[in-house]
Design brief:
23% strand
Length: 554
């Protein structure tokens, strides 16, 4: 079916579910053009072609009647996820009465399934168990209960993706040393609290790459679930005969990207020069993360001229963390550099509480966080389930910064080359950002340079584009600020901030029309379907539009 009009999508977040706001974060990560709200959105259900019910919610009697009448239009599509919304009779579901705790997804083989084999599996946390779901079953749990299904109008994604993302991506609260595995692959109980102490994945979930004695978290569970959910959502939109629209999450239509952080744990000029020499060979723009002792103004000036970031490597005093200390350190470093430091990370991976560091980072003016990582061989990989940037969420509201989780630390030195390179493919498949860091004190060591050079060569061969952390973060924050609405058959875009190189993707085979765009129209394959794309630069508060060229009637 050739879509010639845009679909109007409404996303309803369960107001009584503290994890439902993560569905809003998932939709913002994917970039699907939609309107996000709570149950009040259902009062205007007739304005939408697709409705997505997200989280552990319930439908009032009035809303059940609204949904029933709306489904009577036959051209509408409903996707339910996280729970059955107390609508088993309305949706023709047979519920078991049980809830999932921590389970795995098993895809059902089907040539017509919108869920491809490269999104198979994944650990999820939460959701209601069913004995029967309407339509064709696409996936099941370990006990062969139906988990994901698709039909002519009704679609179900059983896993509670919001709860899963909240508990895995942000991790557990870090208030004491985590208990590590007994295989001696890493040691967490050293009296210093790091982000890796908050890993919520099981140690048994790790795998070993051939040639590496240390196992790693090789499966990005949250990325897998998000891509399954995206494909099912796009499939539901496609069933309406209308076109989905999506704002791509990487600048310039990049398919995937990589970024580098360099921790200046020592301030010797020789170490700085050695580290700079390594990344200069590949024209990489890293973030130099500087301790409170700082560097010389000449070094700052040089790095700034090269387009590198200068960031704050926060050093907790006496293993405690206080807002005043973060602000004072950041202010002193900012004055030395001559610019406000907006990139932040804890020294030696320091982390305290669940969101405490994000609170402190925000008070210092930070907009980019590089804190989530595993710094030991046994904690390499997707220790937080994802390689995609995310906006951390508090119990109420969200933080005005973007977190970029790392997948490797000091390739060839701490994380073996074989494991570091094995992580490229899943990052690329899920359109993520491959971030790795290293210390300047490593750079002069014999043999260290070879590992980083080999890593950078592998990333270049994989055609991953390099951006500095602040470039990625600025783009992502501005992209999320774009207000995209479907009006009179056009996709209207407006932003409070200028946004360069944002790619509009439309699920149609027809040409796109836009008054002004940066590049020629392209066709790309993402999320299991083909898209027509235009890359635009939006000016502040100036409306831009994209339309689908209507087919000529013979």
């Amino acid at each position: 079916m050739v879509q010639s009009q845009f679909a109007r999508v409404g996303v309803v977040l369960a107001s009584e579910d503290c994890y439902s706001n993560w569905y809003g974060e998932i939709f913002r990560q994917i970039g699907i053009v939609c309107e996000i709200g709570d149950e009040k959105l259902l009062e205007q259900i007739g304005e939408f072609d697709v409705i997505v019910l997200c989280g552990n919610g319930q439908l009032s009697l009035d809303n059940k009647e609204r949904v029933r009448r709306w489904l009577g239009r036959m051209s509408t599509q409903l996707l339910v996820t996280g729970s059955f919304w107390d609508g088993e009779f309305l949706f023709d579901i047979v519920a078991s009465g049980e809830r999932y705790s921590r389970n795995r997804i098993e895809l059902v083989e089907s040539k017509e399934s919108p869920l491809a084999s490269d999104t198979s599996g994944g650990i999820f946390i939460g959701g209601e168990q069913a004995r029967k779901l309407p339509g064709s079953v696409l996936a099941q749990d370990e006990a062969r209960n139906p988990l994901i299904s698709t039909g002519s109008q009704l679609h179900f994604y059983g896993p509670h993706l919001g709860k899963t993302a909240a508990l895995i991506v942000q991790g557990r609260g870090v208030s004491s040393d985590g208990i590590g595995p007994s295989d001696l692959s890493c040691y967490l109980e050293d009296g210093f609290l790091r982000a890796e102490d908050g890993i919520a994945l099981e140690w048994g979930d790790r795998e070993s790459v051939t040639g590496d004695e240390f196992p790693a978290f090789l499966t990005p569970h949250v990325d897998l679930l998000r891509d399954q959910f995206a494909r099912l959502t796009l499939h539901a939109i496609g069933q309406t005969g209308l076109a989905p629209a999506l704002l791509w999450h990487l600048p310039g239509n990049a398919d995937s990207a990589f970024t580098v952080g360099i921790e200046c744990d020592g301030s010797t000029l020789g170490e700085i020069k050695a580290a700079a020499g390594i990344v200069a060979k590949f024209a990489v723009r890293p973030a130099w993360l500087v301790l409170p002792s700082g560097l010389s103004k000449e070094i700052y000036k040089t790095f700034t001229q090269w387009g590198h970031d200068i960031g704050h490597l926060y050093l907790p005093e006496d293993h405690s963390i206080a807002a005043d200390a973060v602000r004072i350190q950041n202010l002193a470093l900012s004055r030395s550099v001559g610019n406000q430091l907006t990139v932040i990370k804890g020294a030696d991976g320091a982390w305290f509480g669940l969101t405490r560091f994000y609170d402190l980072a925000t008070t210092s003016g930070a907009l980019t966080s590089m804190c989530k990582e595993g710094r030991q061989p046994g904690t390499s990989g997707f220790a937080f389930g994802t390689s995609r940037p995310f906006c951390p969420l508090a119990r109420k509201g969200k933080y005005d910064l973007i977190e970029y989780p790392a997948v490797a630390f000091a390739p060839g030195w701490v994380t073996s080359n074989t494991t570091a390179e094995a992580l490229i493919e899943p990052v690329k498949r899920h359109h993520g950002v491959y971030r790795f860091d290293f210390k300047t004190s490593f750079a002069p060591e014999r043999g260290f340079e070879n590992g980083v050079v080999r890593m950078l060569m592998a990333l270049r061969e994989a055609e991953m584009k390099n951006f500095s952390p602040s470039e990625l973060s600025k783009y992502e924050r501005n992209r999320r600020s774009i207000r995209a609405t479907v009006e009179d058959g056009r996709l209207e875009l407006v932003s409070d901030y200028p946004v360069a190189q944002v790619t509009v993707m439309v699920g149609t085979h027809l040409p796109l029309i836009s008054g002004k765009h940066d590049s020629a129209e392209e066709t790309v394959l993402r999320y299991g379907q083909r898209w027509r794309t235009l890359t635009l630069t939006l000016e502040s508060r100036i409306r831009s539009g994209v339309a689908i060229k209507q087919p000529q009637v013979a």
